[in-house]
Amino acid sequence: MITIYFESFGGGFSPFSDLEKEMLRQAFSHAQIHCQKAYNASLSSFKRHRSELQLWFGNSKNITILHVISSIRKMHIVVFNPKIFITFVDARERYIQRGDLEFDTVHDAPSQEDNHFLKYQQGTRTIVQDNQTAFVNCISWSDHDAGCSNHVGLGMRVYVGHAMFSESSSPIKRSQTVIHELSHKILGTVDINLAGNLVYGERNCQQLAKTSPEQAIKHADCLAFFINSIEKKSYCSIL
Ligand SMILES: [Zn+2]
Question: pLDDT tens for residues 90-115?
Answer without folding.
Answer: 877 665 544 444 444 555 543 333 33
